[in-house]
């Protein structure tokens, strides 16, 4: 009887407190949300397979629990395999590819130091802006959208500007270019410069060998070929990079991305105890581990060849295997095409980004989406859109 009275009293108190709130509970949240099922054939994110979704739905545990630390160790091994590196300093940043880009630049560069960025699309532009924001002296070499740089051009620019860091995008998803990497690491090291590579759109879909290609810092994202949800970003630092990162005169501008802390949290610094730094995205780490397990089950060469073969069905120039850029059909509004395909085929493809805005359509076929059936689906949707979308007479 006394329990029921207490319970009723609490309900009455709650009702009185709710009557005094100025902002009522939103009616939109009283409806159950159901995510639409779509064919995610844009430049990312890609469709997440049931196996990875199931992994992410496992019960949440503490981010410092022994089981969680074991999962992080598994993730580290998976990234080392995906990057083809033996670097001990290999982790997954809690955030998207942009977070890993900032992690690389913020840790490797101090205010006043020189950075050289190779700009053949939007990601070189973004790297330059991030470096400028921390007070670096930034120079860029620029080529037209769809182009890439020769070793001679890179060598000359490094000799001229003498940076501590050179940034290059391996898979430029805004223009559909996969940049040659062989020999560039040696050129950078000749000029006492670290070689930083963005492989968000290429890792797992195009050949990439971090150690053999002399890459000092390499990062990627979870939502492309790995087919995991967005929100985690693999990154690895060579011994040469670690020497620079851990012998700074100043602290990195970001506490959240400070590799001194992150190295400890991931068990990469050799210390016996791990100290709390931030609450990691536990469920996202579950999903990332599962996506790396799927990648490890593939024969890497076969995986690369499959992406290349599927890409060739769309683009016989066979550039970036994971994201194909198609010239926007003259006379058509690209936005109308992508909207029509989304509405009538439940299929996402994207327009251009950065320097390719308004010029191209971008089709991403990555990981489990990389199949002939997916190509056929995209081509049929495009044929249908060109029949029904408006074409100007100009």
From TrEMBL:
One cellular-component annotation, GO: peroxisome
Keyword Transferase in record:
yes
Report whether Transferase shows up as a keyword of the record. yes
What is catalysed by this protein?
A: L-serine + pyruvate = 3-hydroxypyruvate + L-alanine; glyoxylate + L-alanine = glycine + pyruvate
Print the keywords alphabetically: Aminotransferase, Pyridoxal phosphate, Transferase
Swiss-Prot/TrEMBL cofactor(s): pyridoxal 5'-phosphate
Homology family: Belongs to the class-V pyridoxal-phosphate-dependent aminotransferase family.
Task: Quote the protein name from its UniProt record.
Answer: Alanine--glyoxylate aminotransferase
């Amino acid at each position: 009887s006394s329990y029921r009275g207490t319970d009723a009293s609490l309900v009455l108190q709650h009702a009185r407190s709710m009557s005094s709130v100025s902002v009522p509970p939103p009616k939109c949240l009283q409806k159950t949300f159901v995510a639409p099922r779509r064919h995610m054939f844009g430049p990312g994110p890609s469709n997440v397979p049931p196996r990875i979704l199931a992994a992410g739905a496992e019960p949440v545990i503490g981010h410092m629990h022994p089981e969680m630390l074991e999962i992080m160790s598994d993730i580290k091994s998976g990234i080392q395999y995906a990057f083809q590196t033996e670097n001990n300093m290999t982790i997954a940043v809690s955030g998207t590819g942009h977070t890993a880009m900032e992690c690389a630049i913020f840790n490797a560069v101090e205010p006043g130091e020189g950075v050289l960025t190779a700009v053949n699309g939007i990601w070189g532009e973004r790297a330059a802006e991030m470096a400028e924001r921390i007070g670096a002296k930034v120079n860029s070499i620029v080529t037209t959208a769809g182009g890439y740089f020769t070793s001679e051009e890179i060598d000359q620019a490094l000799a001229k500007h003498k940076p501590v860091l050179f940034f290059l995008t391996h898979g430029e998803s805004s223009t559909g270019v996969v940049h040659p990497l062989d020999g560039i690491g040696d050129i950078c090291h000749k000029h006492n410069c670290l070689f930083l590579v963005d492989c968000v759109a290429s890792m797992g879909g195009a050949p990439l060998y971090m150690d053999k290609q002399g890459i000092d810092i390499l990062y990627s994202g979870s939502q492309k070929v790995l087919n995991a949800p967005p929100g985690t970003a693999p990154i690895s630092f060579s011994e040469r990079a670690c020497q620079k990162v851990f012998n700074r005169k100043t602290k990195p501008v970001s506490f959240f991305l400070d590799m001194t802390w992150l190295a400890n949290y991931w068990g990469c610094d050799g210390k016996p105890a791990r100290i709390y730094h931030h609450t990691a995205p536990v469920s996202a780490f579950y999903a990332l581990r599962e996506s790396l397990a799927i990648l490890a089950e593939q024969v890497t060469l076969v995986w690369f060849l499959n992406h290349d073969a599927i890409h060739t069905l769309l683009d016989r120039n066979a550039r970036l295997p994971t994201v194909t850029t198609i010239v926007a059909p003259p006379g058509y509004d690209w936005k109308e095409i992508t909207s029509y395909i989304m509405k009538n085929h439940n299929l996402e493809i994207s327009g251009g980004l950065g320097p390719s805005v308004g010029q191209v359509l971008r089709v991403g076929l990555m990981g489990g989406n990389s199949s002939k059936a997916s190509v056929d689906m995209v081509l049929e949707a495009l044929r249908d859109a060109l029949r029904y979308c408006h074409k100007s007479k100009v």
